[in-house]
């Protein structure tokens, strides 16, 4: 079923490609007519037409891949897609107009305006009509039950039973193929016993999701079980790309500020997702990382040389200090710093630094005050191991200790670690596990509200901290 849905998504992309080609061809045809040219002179023999017929549609596909939702057509809302198509068509035509068409010869400004609106209307109308046809066919296949998603219900009592009955008795399918339920109360009978297979308990949820290749999880726990909701979401968000999470609407007040509502599915379920960035925001963030790191490494080269000399004179040992940290998706990497401590100061057991740390050299203390020791991490940013903004990377030793008290720390590993973070701006460096747990709250808030504007705000406040010499 997954392969079939993937193929249908491929056909959706092909439909966009053909629509863009048709719009470009008609645009050239109508323009040739308006200029009194024959099809041969104004279209067929115009090399710009053929270049555009290849380059422009491919550019549209790349544009859609970045800014649109090329995932699963059976998850797309027709109304939302129509609105998004309008604005993306407008933005895309603006780009095409100023990169390809502005140098065309025209008698006056009105010709440019006419060409702009002609291309926009052609592209939007053709793309929108084709998309609506494809999505309508997809919707009918979903509602007829031809397309389904492997689904489990989390909860086994009255609310879960009511949800099961609501799905089972609907005339039109929501695309859920219920394979069983997860027991939430281990004592006493469950209302779903005899109606659905009992797959296991909440503690076994990760193994069940992997074993049955679950694609949707419907949370229907009782009010008395709300204390379990956070743990359930922690597990489900580990499968954020594979499992769609939906919940009964009357739990919305519990989730307010923690997750974001996206779509309403009748009166039955609300879809919830973790607040990670969209594709275009990820691209802009990465481009900003690359640009700032390159500029920083070039402009700060004299500063690097000065610091290297001071580190060399401060004490015996290497200029740079590298240490293994845990990064994106739990992958280890080597973080780089200017050495601020005496060689071998840490010993065999990992230790955190603190104010007045005697292990720091005099120059090292100055660097840490102004965070100059962090500058080599611009290289980590450039090669993609880190970002300018993101939760500070930690060593596995401390991560294990943190997760003993706060298992939700694992959500920080879903994004690139950063040179600076919301937690560092709001709380500063952590000198012990308790302070790490306090800083964790800010880092979780950052992940739930990630955006380019917040990144810029964090960078701004970081610069203020540096200018004030409050690095440590």
Structure notes:
The chain has 3 domains: 2-143, no CATH class; 149-273, NAD(P)-binding Rossmann-like Domain (Rossmann fold, 3-Layer(aba) Sandwich); 279-468, no CATH class. The protein contains 17 helices and 11 strands. The protein has helices at 2-34, 39-44, 47-67, 78-101, 109-143, 158-169, 205-212, 229-236, 252-255, 279-299, 301-314, 362-370, 377-382, 396-405, 422-426, 433-448, 452-468, and strands spanning 149-154, 176-183, 198-201, 216-219, 244-247, 260-265, 269-273, 320-326, 332-338, 387-389, 418-420. The strands form 3 sheets. Strands 3-2-1-4-5-7-6 form a 7-stranded mixed beta sheet. Strands 8-9 form a two-stranded antiparallel sheet. It has a two-stranded parallel ribbon with strand order 10-11. The two termini are 54 Å apart.
Q: How would you summarize the topology of this molecule?
A:
Elements: H1 2-34, H2 39-44, H3 47-67, H4 78-101, H5 109-143, E1 149-154, H6 158-169, E2 176-183, E3 198-201, H7 205-212, E4 216-219, H8 229-236, E5 244-247, H9 252-255, E6 260-265, E7 269-273, H10 279-299, H11 301-314, E8 320-326, E9 332-338, H12 362-370, H13 377-382, E10 387-389, H14 396-405, E11 418-420, H15 422-426, H16 433-448, H17 452-468
Parallel strand pairs: 1-2, 1-4, 2-3, 4-5, 10-11
Antiparallel strand pairs: 5-7, 6-7, 8-9
Spatial arrangement of strands, main beta sheet: 3-2-1-4-5-7-6
Helix/strand-derived category reads: alpha/beta
Estimate percent helicity. Answer: 40-55%
What overall form do the CA principal axes indicate? flat
What is the strand content? 5-15%
Can you summarize the main beta sheet?
A: 7 strands, mixed
Order of helices and strands: HHHHHEHEEHEHEHEEHHEEHHEHEHHH
How many runs of DSSP E, i.e. beta strands? 11
């Amino acid at each position: 079923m997954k392969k079939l849905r993937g193929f249908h998504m491929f056909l959706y992309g092909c439909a966009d490609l053909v629509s863009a080609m048709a719009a470009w061809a008609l645009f050239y045809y109508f323009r040739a007519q308006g200029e009194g040219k024959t099809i041969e002179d104004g279209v067929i023999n115009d090399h710009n037409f053929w270049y555009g017929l290849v380059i422009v549609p491919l550019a549209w596909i790349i544009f859609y891949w970045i800014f649109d939702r090329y995932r699963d057509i059976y998850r797309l809302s027709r109304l939302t897609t129509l609105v998004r198509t309008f604005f993306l068509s407008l933005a895309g035509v603006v780009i095409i107009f100023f990169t390809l068409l502005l140098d065309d010869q025209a008698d006056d400004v009105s010709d440019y305006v006419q060409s702009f609106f002609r291309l926009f209307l052609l592209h939007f109308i053709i793309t929108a009509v084709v998309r609506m046809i494809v999505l309508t066919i997809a919707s009918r296949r979903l509602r007829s039950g031809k397309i389904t998603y492997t689904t489990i219900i989390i909860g086994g009592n009255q609310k879960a039973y009511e949800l099961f009955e609501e799905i089972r008795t609907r005339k039109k399918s929501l695309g859920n193929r219920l394979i069983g339920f997860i027991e939430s109360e281990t004592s006493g009978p469950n209302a779903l016993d005899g109606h659905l297979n009992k797959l296991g308990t909440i503690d076994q949820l990760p193994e069940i999701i992997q074993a049955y290749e679950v694609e949707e999880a419907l949370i229907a726990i009782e009010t008395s079980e709300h204390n379990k909701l956070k743990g359930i979401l922690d597990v489900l968000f580990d499968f954020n790309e594979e499992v769609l999470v939906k919940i009964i609407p009357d739990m919305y007040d519990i989730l307010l500020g923690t997750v974001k509502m996206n779509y309403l599915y009748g009166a039955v379920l609300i879809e919830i997702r973790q607040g990670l960035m969209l594709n275009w925001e990820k691209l802009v963030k990465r481009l900003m990382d690359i640009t700032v790191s390159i500029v920083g490494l070039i402009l700060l080269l004299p500063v690097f040389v000065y610091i290297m000399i001071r580190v060399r004179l401060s004490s015996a040992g290497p200029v740079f200090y590298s240490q293994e940290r845990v990064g994106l998706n739990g992958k280890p990497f080597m973080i780089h710093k200017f050495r601020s401590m005496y060689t071998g100061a840490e010993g065999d057991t990992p230790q955190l630094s603190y104010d007045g740390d005697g292990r720091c050299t005099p120059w090292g203390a100055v660097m840490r005050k102004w965070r100059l020791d962090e500058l080599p991490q611009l290289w980590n940013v450039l090669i993609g191991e880190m970002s300018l903004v993101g939760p500070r990377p930690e060593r596995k030793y401390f991560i294990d200790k943190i997760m003993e008290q706060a298992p939700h720390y694992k959500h920080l590993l879903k994004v690139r670690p950063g040179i600076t973070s919301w937690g560092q701006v709001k709380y500063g460096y952590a000198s012990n596990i308790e302070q790490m747990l306090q800083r964790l709250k800010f880092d979780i808030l950052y992940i739930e509200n990630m955006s380019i504007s917040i990144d810029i705000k964090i960078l701004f406040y970081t610069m203020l901290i540096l200018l004030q010499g409050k690095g440590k």
